[in-house]
Structures are given as structure tokens and as C-alpha cells.
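seq:
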Amino acid sequence: MLARPGDSFDLRLAFAGTSGHYNAPVEVRSSAPTRLDLGGGTLDIWPLYLFHPGAQTVNVAIGLRAACTVSSTRDGSVRVHSKDTGHTLTASHWEALETTGQNRLLAHIVRFFQTDGVQITTQAASPVGAGIAGSSALTIAVCGALARWRGEDYSSQQLLTLAMNLEARTLGIPTGVQDYRPALHGGVSAVELGPLGVTRVPIETDTAELQRRLVLVYSGDSRSSGLNNWDITQRHIAGDAALAATFGRIRDIAGAIRDALTRSDWTALATHSQPRVAGPSGARTRCQHTHHRHVDDARPQRRRPRGQSLRRGRRGVHLLLD
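struct:
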């Protein structure tokens, strides 16, 4: 399940045909890993982490990858095809690409690169809305492939910034800074967040034992965190004291998770990954997704029909730790 050591963003050229002729059309193929957010999530949105000194997120790249292939079209048109949804977006010129609908993120990327005469095919091993940064991994893969296609020599930091900003442009709201780093660098790491900037720090741990103890389960129900995160960001900035306290707890748990990983202390990791915290009604709630469930506990609870269970924070992927 975990990505292999050194298994990060991958970019390569290949001949589209089998003749090997020097003038054969070239394909650019790229892929990037998704990630598990072990702690600190949502704090990685600027400026939330500035309100909580010592803020960090902890993540691990996994073997579920997002892939992209870029090749040429004979008629100079632009075609964007998602193997996952089966949807194809076509235009005679990059400026004519629609930035609405299922492929709007890819359309924004192509429009940034102002690229005509390309066929872009994408495929993601992660289900849509699984909560493991599939869209961020895909954005890194597509941006990297199109940069190579155009002959742009971006640094890792430039590629990361570009992917983050194009995804924010697509969503119309700020994005976090964490998800692009596992896609680019792989491995187990902490992302330290502070006034001087954002720093990725690799975490040395027993990854073989970590993988043996982890089970990743997809609920079959997709989730979308963008609008919820934006609502929470606005409330925190507006001075919601309960929410600020919740984020302080998230910061502390992320630090404990990092320490447990560094020591390969699996008992401590399990304890801090699934704490029991008091919700607004005083009920005790077991937190499988610490960062999301803590935030959910701070949200106002809506009235619901009698007999309907409340399933906040239970969509997407669940992480079980032995």
C-alpha cells in the first residue's frame, strides 16, 4: 500500500510507435502518488497555521497513483480524456476549452500552458473523492507532463506552486499546501508550517512495519472537503474561539503522531491517531480521521429527521491501524 522508497513523481519520454524512427511522435508519460494524511490536516491552509505556532502535517505517500499521458493530435486540436469518468473534452484551440464540468481542472491546466495539438489522457487509481489527495497528485502529474512537452524546465518548487495555484483557480477557494509535497517527493514526511514558510522534513521510520499494520478501506461514498475547509477558514479568521481550540488540539496530535513515527512506536501512533474527544453535546467520539473529525465536532450540528444517523467525517477513505 505504501509507495516504495524513492517512489515519487515520475516523468519519462516514450515513442508512440514501435518503429523507433527518430521522427516518430513522442509521448510524455508521468505519474504521482497519492497520500495518507496522518495528522494536522486543514491546518495547512494559509493563514490558519499562522495562528497556531508549531503547526505541521504528517503524511505518507501510497502506491495508488495518478497518471497522465500527453501525445500529439494530427489535426492540431486539443483533446482531454479521463479514463476514470469516460468523459472527453475537445476543442479546436486551447482558448476554446470549457472550464466548467468534469474536466475543468484539466482545462485550466491546458489553458495555462496554452497548448494546442495535444491529446491528454489521465487515469487515477484513487476513487474520486476518496480523501487521499487524488486531484492534487493528478495536477502534479499533468503539470509536469505538459511542462516537459513545452520544454519548460521548472524546479520542484515551481511545479508545486503551479499545481497548487491552478487547483485553487479551479475550485475558486484556497487550497492547502500539504498534498502536492507527497506527490512530488513520496516517502513519509512532516510539513512544517510557519511564518518563514513551508518546509518538508522526511521522517525516518520503519516503513515495512508501518505498511504491515495499516489497512486502507474505501467507504464507497465520496467526499468533498474544499467548501467545508473554506467555511472553517472563514470562521477561524472571524474569531471562533471553540474552533481555535480545536485546531490547537489538532496541532498537538500531529506533533505526537510525528514523534511516534520517528520512534516507530506503533502503540503511541495508534493512540494518537484515534483519540477520544468531546463533541459539542458532550458525547465521546472516536476519531478515525483526527483532523477531519475534530473539525466536524466544532461545526454546528444540523437537525435531521428522526432515525437518520449522522455520518459526518465517514466518507472517503478510512485508515485502520493495528
